[in-house]
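Good morning C.,

I know you're traveling, so I'll keep this short. The sequence:
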Amino acid sequence: MLSAKSDSRLDIHNSEIPAVCRACEARHRGVCGALTPDQLSHLSRHTTRQEVASDTQLASAGETVGHYSNVLAGVVKLSRLMADGRQQIVGLQFAPDFLGRPFRATNEVSAEAATGVKLCRFPKAVMDEMMARSPDLERRLYQQALDQLDEAREWILALGRKSAAEKVASFILMIAENVDPDQVDAGVPIRFELPLKRADIADFLGLTIETVSRQITRLRKAGVIVVENNRTVTVPDLDRLRDTCETDAG
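The tokens, ready to paste straight into the viewer:
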């Protein structure tokens, strides 16, 4: 996932920037931040905005890549199908992540909308041509690959060494920090809907559904999180949740 942040919003009213791009988070914090106004104008002529419902298949492993997308809102679930037919969730993507696998002709993983998702979609051929002409854009995409590698290493650590309590806390922390970064920066309680069902969380963390439910209950009783309607979570103190990710309270 790519989450390179930039606090610069000086160009938000710049008439050279296409209107559709001026307030877009992918423009300010995602790969499109590497593009010049002329390049943005060129790309915007080929883009389409989409809103898809949860559980909608966005891409299938093995199929030819025809388009890339920027995630504008919502959560995308990445998964691999194992030889015995079981599905393994291998990652989540948030705004303004880049959805797609550059430099490959086919998808390596399947992508599905875990929640309602908004996308900015553009043809692969157009983006590939722009990458060839823009070292900054190509550099951003390489940075995405490195970020994904770092995240994969973190989850290897979480799955291999952390306790069940720490795994569940780490999962909730990941959602809290990514679902609305402005809330994190504001230092206020963070409220969100869990993007995955308990069964999917268990699959992602290598736990049973019962264990996931038990650990969420423990976090709730300890006051680390507040849970409403089984899916709505509030994190009153992000630092306390971070501490829980590293120390099993017993």
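Safe travels,
E.
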